[in-house]
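I am writing to request your help with a piece of structural work I have in hand. I set the record out below, with my sincere thanks for your time.
___
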Amino acid sequence: MKAERTGPNAFTLAFDSEDELREEHRANLSQGGLRLPVADAPAPALFSPVDVTLRGPSGGEARVKGTVVAPLPDGVALAFEGDADALLARLLAAPAVRESAAKDVSDWDRLRGMSRTERLLYAPRAERNERVVLVQDADPQVLYALLKNPRLTVDEVVRVAKSAYLTYQTAELILKTAQWAANVEVKTALVHNPKTPPAFALRILPTLPEAEVKAIARGAATSMALKQAALKRLQGGG
């Protein structure tokens, strides 16, 4: 067994094997006692209270409160009150497994494991944590289906607008949806995405703040036509 001090009078005592635990139970636990090895000084004083967390070989744990009743060559002897057989059963048991542990597959793995058709059907009703994965999908049709989700937030639309897999249809749907088309972050994301059709970018340009127009004119444009339109607007020509 291995003992580790976790406080002045607190210890963790781990049993390496079931045989070792059963032998300690036969010799001491069943009699209301416990042998506690103490490698580092000072050992707990006689008659002082001690907290011990016992850990079984399979990970089962139990906490006991004991009293030092005698010094030992390598530690101290403790006396404790309680049902020693119940204590043994707890230490021999493995920790309770969460019901979901058997299904503990990440959202990423689960969604990536779906077929294309399944993702297309699932995207319009996906929860927020699932949409974090779907918004990164390399299938343009999945992104389009995601925009049909009524719980989609503006920040998620911005991510779709920035996607390298943006298509004409997806950009068009964003611009046809009033609350998204009116959002500066969404429009900025679209105008700076080289996948956005030039006609859409030119339509967005007049609605952007002047600082964004200046950035486009200085070279952040996705096309020469967009840069020229930005310069023209700054010069008062549009």
Summary: The first strand starts at residue 2 and ends at 7. The chain has two domains: 2-92, 105-234.
